[in-house]
Design goal:
With about 425 residues, this protein is an alpha/beta fold. Helices cover about 50% and strands about 10% of the residues. The termini are far apart.
Amino acid sequence: MAPRKSRPKMEDEVTPSKKNLEVGSPSSKKSAIKDQLKACSERGREGKKIASKRCEREEPGFDNPGIEKSGIEFPDSDSEEEEEELAFSRNYFLAKEIGSPSSKKSTVKKLSDINLVDEQLLRASLSEIKMKNEKEIELLLEEYKSLYSHWLFELRCGFGLLMYGFGSKKSLLEDFASTALNAYNVIVINGYLPSVNLKQVFLSIAEILSDQCNKNKGKSKIPFPTCSQSTDDIISFIKDVSAKCDSSVCLLVHNIDGPGLREPDSQQYLARVSSFSCVSLVASIDHVNAALLWDKKMVRTEFKYSWHHVPTFVPYKTEGLFCPLILSNSGHAQTTKTALVVLQSLTPNAQSVFRVLAEHQLNNPKEEGMHVSDLYTKCRELFLISSQLTLNSHLTEFKDHELVKMRRSSEGQDCLFIPLHSDALQKLLQDLA
């Protein structure tokens, strides 16, 4: 067997750190990467040639004589692209080092690094922004006015109107109600509010219908339901009265997909009332998934929607007042409104317990919170609670609505605190009073 020859050293086989990394311009670095890839591909071809020659020399000495020379084949490279990809994968980390230094810099950003603006200042700045394309928007709204007669015809045929499209439709629907719905008793529901009292709305409908029936009957009067009755009883009363009087009521719902009406029970109640012959519905939606609120029965047999695409391109100024701003410093105003709604739904004793905790937090701003035992003693002195079990039930309700939180003090005791700024907490107590 002939002695092996040492592989000749190619000219391009030079350490890249000495030959190519001395150049500082980006173009020279790119060319250095290409030179390295080219050198790797040439080394691959040279290695295949050397291996082929070795096998040709060593073939007669194979133990198996049945193997012929023509039976051994060394496949050539499929294409230059595959060789370049193979060479690049071998020199991946080298290419990353030779690359631009900007790639080494960290591009990770956090939301906490953004300098947020005070909410009042941000809202004041937003109010100063002038609306663009005012003339075009006015012309578009004038075109919609020509459709009022068609919308009114659909209402009289028993269909409900559902308006969708980009832009606030509040002014459009209110203009339609004041212009074309003079024969109806219009009740407006602002669904964009955080909470909507549908029971009060249904009581208003029942009162309107019962008054109309009493005028027609004369002496025999129909008593309308009271607040003490359940919502189902009020809806049943509306159903019975609707068959006896000729009066018509139109529910004008701004954002029927709003946060105050997204609960399944609220949508079911609205669907049942809208199915009555004396009640018509005109509503608007703005959420992209609003149709998921209803099933097939509600849409076809109860609401009986007639969909109308009416983009107005009007800013959501009124609707946006009740949405927290992403770039604002804090949502104290929104949090205070939510807390007020929750507290108003609780019992007077629960409100008084919350007031005791809030006043202690305002009077002692440096403390970590109020101990549970101190709160129990204070409430017991004011005759707000009768036992520890009553206090625990109030605290559980506070925690479920995130009105009160608990943390460990430096002494290892459980302390209660209200997660609100002192100014927001004072305003909450004033509104609650």
